[in-house]
Amino acid sequence: MHLLIDKKNKIIIYLLLLLILSTTSGKFVENQTTYFSSVNQVNIEGLSSTDISKISYELNNLFYENILLVSKEEVQRAISKYNIIEEYSVKKIYPSTININIQQTKFVARLSNNDQLVGSNGKLIDDEENREVLPYVFGQFNTQDFLHLKKNIDQSKFTFTKIKTLYFFPSKRWDILTNDNILIKLPQANLPESLNLAYKIISSNDFKNKNLIDLRMNNHLIVK
After folding, report:
1. What burial letters (b/e) apply to 49-88, b meaning 16+ CB within 10 Å?
2. Is residue 210 pLDDT above 90, yes or no?
3. For the segment 33-84, what is each residue's pLDDT rounded down to a tens digit?
4. Mean pLDDT of 183-205
5. What is the pLDDT of residue 36?
6. Is the Cα dihedral 74, 75, 78, 81 positive or negative?
7. Separation between Cα atoms, residue 143 and residue 146, nearest integer Å
8. What per-residue string of b and e applies to 151-186 under the rule 16 or more CB within 10 Å gives b?
9. What is the pLDDT of residues 71-106, one digit of tens each?
10. Alpha-carbon 143 to chain mean position
């Protein structure tokens, strides 16, 4: 009878020890996961210190959030507010760091009415400190109108940096003025062919002392 009681006591003691150890271990793992999985550092590269500070402020809500639960969509909502960004990548460095590498858009033109800059991503950027010499754009255009023209110029023999001014008309047609003050009136369609033809004419010796190329009408060329 005495041996039976001792055996029961030992079993109870073992069970109590096992319960205590498992509880302690469970708390440790839980605390460890919470501590090491919480975001405590967000690194941003690729922009000026001013722009990095603005974006960092937008991402403050990520701090102390479980890094496993941070989604790219959550980061995108904050970053997409800034037109200066061309593209970016997000990388989680476990246990607690997020690295964001940003590629800034290139400034390709300047609006004539409010001095906003046009990025290569087609978005408008407010940057009063920029003093870069850029072509001026006149007219009410949208992103796709401008990007379509820019793509065609880049694929032609022209260099975009050799253009002084761009004019957009309600008929969705463009005029471009080169740095040499040569005005090229482009048609609505067939831009690649028209641009290359204009380049060929300008490069010809027969174009000396002329400053207008009108390509608006099909199968008609006017040079003045």
Report:
1. eebbebbeeebeebeeeebeebeeeebeebbeebbbbeeb
2. no
3. 444 578 989 999 999 898 899 999 989 888 888 888 888 888 888 888 899 9
4. 92
5. 53
6. negative
7. 5
8. ebbeebebebeebbbbbbeeeebbbbbbeeebbbbb
9. 888 888 888 889 999 999 999 998 889 999 999 999
10. 14
Helix axes 191-203, 143-155, angle to 10 degrees: 50
- What is the third-level CATH fold of 37-104? Ubiquitin-like (UB roll) (3.10.20)
Which of 3.20.20.330, 3.40.50.11690, 3.40.50.300, 3.40.140.100 is the CATH number of 107-223?
A: 3.40.50.11690
Per-domain residue ranges for the chain? Answer: 37-104, 107-223
State phi, psi for 201 to the nearest 5 degrees. Answer: -65, -45
